[in-house]
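I'd like us to work through together how a protein chain folds, taking it slowly. We need material for that, and I hope you will provide a protein of your own picking. Go ahead whenever you are ready, and we will take it from there:
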Amino acid sequence: MNSKINQLDYDTLINLLSLFPNPITLNRTQIDDQNQEYDEIVYVNPAFTKSLGYEVEDIPTDRVWFKKAYPDESYEKFISQEWFNALNIARENKQDLLGIPARIMCGDGVEKWFQVTSHTDRFAIGEFHLIIFVEIDTPEETILKLQKTSQELITKNRLLTHKESVLKETQQVAQIGSWEIDLLSGAVSWSEEMYKIYGEDSEHVPNMDDFYSRLTESDATKVKSKIESAIRTGERQHVIIDITRKNLPNITVEIFGQAVYDQNHQPVKVIGSSMDVTSRVALQNQNDELATILKKTHQELYIVDLDTDNYVYANESASLCTGYTNEEILSLSVYDLNPLLTKDHVKQLKALAGTELDTISNVSMHKRKDGTTYPVYASLQRITYNNRKCYAIFDADISELKQAEMALKDQFNLLQNIIDSMPVRIFWKNLEGRYLGANKLFLDDAQITDSSQLIGKTDFEQTWAEKDAEAYRKDDMSVMTSEVPKLYFEESQTNKHGEKIILSTSKVPLKNLEGEVIGLLGTYEDITERKQIQETLIEQQNILHHQAHHDALTGLPNRLLIKDRLDHAIKYSKRHHLSFGLLFIDLDQFKQINDAMGHDIGDVVLTKIAKKLQNSIRDSDTLARLGGDEFTILVEEIESEEDLSLFAEKIIEVSKEAIEADGQVFYLSSSIGVSMYPKDAQTVDELLKCADSAMYKAKEQGRNNVQFYTEDMTQRAFEHVAMQASLRQAIQNDEFILYYQPQINAENHSITGLEALVRWQHPSLGLVAPNKFIPLAESTGMIVELDRQVMKMAMKQVVHWHSRGINPGTVWINLAAKQIQHPGFIEFVEGCLAETKCKPEWIALEVTESDIMTNLDDAKNVLVKVDKLGIRMAIDDFGTGYSSLAYLKRLPVSKLKIDQSFIRDLPEDEDDKAITKTIITMAENLGFDVIAEGVETIEQRDFLLKNHCYNIQGYFYSKPIPSDAVPEFITNF
């Protein structure tokens, strides 16, 4: 064996051929002492021995083979000539395979017909080539006659007794037609068989057009070239083409031709033969496919040494599935690819596959080269491979089947869990009243721990047997007999504690697929508490009604009730031509009390203020709390504006009185706006709006004063409208720019990223801060388009930085709530990434905690889609939105940003310290990164570092800077 094929490949080839179902010989060309070539037959597979009856020792060479397979000398020579003719034809047509049908004498003396196929290339596999035998039915009579006649023809040629009558007979039997082209006259003559091949009657006068008009353009060119070559070279020409026929199926024709020369060596005619080879070509194509299957199979196949359990063969699919190369697999054992297998298990499997006829199955787990696993269904069979005992394994990936099995198991467990988790008792019985099953609550009532203690028993064997079993059985029988469900009926029972309880019970008949009653399904629920609740329902409804119309903290009418009172006041005043006033009260600096002392102290202050105000009004007036530190007073049937002004001043003085809470004294003031009916407005909402505008005027005037509504206060509304129009124009004209505030890892003093912050470059006002236009953009819905401009600008900027070799870290972009709610948001982000060529990992999005909590489910769905794009998410202003930690774990969030309100008073404020520590600890436990914003002092930074918050953003390191200043900041930091 030379270097063209190594021993490993040879063994693999032999092993694979041994599994192939068709007879095959493996041949190698040798040179004898007379320098003549012959084939050494080095291997025959088991199928060859079984089908033809010869071992490799019986036919060591092709010369011995021909003598044994074709004992008739004339037939042997015929087959030899046919084989080399087929070889020449295949090579001329650049075909990879050749084949002929042949009658072969088998080892047991029985003749069989085979299609014998091989490669045209002598060295198809290294230095070897294959001969493949496909057993076929006995050929048709015409083919038998053809071969018989051809043998006679060869014999007569050898005896030089070539007669025209025999040739004609041969043509008729073999469907071979002869033809002649006179090159001098251009006349064409056909033999009788040619007319049959071309489907023409005997009156047809053949001509050159018959050779071309029935062909495709390419075949016509091929035939013409062959004729010209025959005339030019004098060599025999051969071609196989497809021809069309009138009213007959198309056929494939094999044509041989040769030029005839006169004594002056001038071509005078071209003679040749044509043969219908349609069936032979079809058979050849089938053998080509079979040979291709042999050459490369896609099945996942392993062959394992029976004694060592090492792999000795693996096909290409095995490599593709496991990720190992073929050489790597052959260095492994079954335990390497099947980590769940044990030697005892393998031993049992091999014992079950006792003979080569036995095939057993096994489910195992394969481990890929990358460490991942997948389940397989394996078929194992004992075989003899390369003269040693082995077993072959055919594996099929059953990942989808396993997933379906797990899903079914999960569904079963889920159903059982659902039944056990139901807040009602569930049980089912057969026709005899014997229990078939129940849920956990029922088992608890029955004072048993396992359903096996219940199944098969009746009510007469339970703890309630003496008091209730007879009644239960009678009730069950009525339901099963009538087949009518009995739903939600009440019955009393004494529980295990001796207490009288009321049950709501339902019973329905159980039926099989044929509709026959086979038992009963029952449920019951203890509704004792529910009945008690029903008795107090009216009282609760009254309480709920009061709560719906009154403030929970102060007990005062709320916004809903004051609007109802205002509506009644308008109708009454209109009917009686009266006036009334509305005071809108806002407590000054109340937020500082909440921030400094906490909401508990703030609530005490609000309660006492409400009581003082309530004591200062008439019985006919209505004091209401709108929310927070805002109150209104409806003052009905006023005589004059002066009276209302005096009343308002009285409220100013009352609100300035000292308030004691938790041992401390607080002094407040109030800003009051006043509107009047019908002078200022004639509707509820307009009255409230006018009073609110007047209150803001009082705030602007320095607080602690009263302002009556005037028409010039509408100027603020006009300015609001003007600002809205200006903002819309700014979005259209791209008047916004981005500043970037660095985010620093304070532990290692490195830049981790930037937060993109929008600024309005107003053409006349200059640079406008976001707090001047963001609220307006949010209230008008323009925040969606503004957000999108910011996102696209930030992506373009980060791409520009990276193109210059500047790595700013992650650029964080703020995301508005309305953007999350917009149906086209995800498509916009995908388009923006594609347009700017920004990589998802370069950016991240921040959304405020309060925005997420507004609609958790919708926000989660959007954030999950953003996460799938590869964009990270952070929760901004964390600690202000009262998030559910259980829900927070389910969000695709990687970072929490501590709101600056908790950072501002660090490290002095104990509440802020506790909150900040809690957020940092929670983030660590949930696996989130955490960053603090608004850090301005070294004390704040040190406190955060001490408590493991290393990421910091704030003026301590840098204020927001324009984009062109970022590269210098990164370089010099």
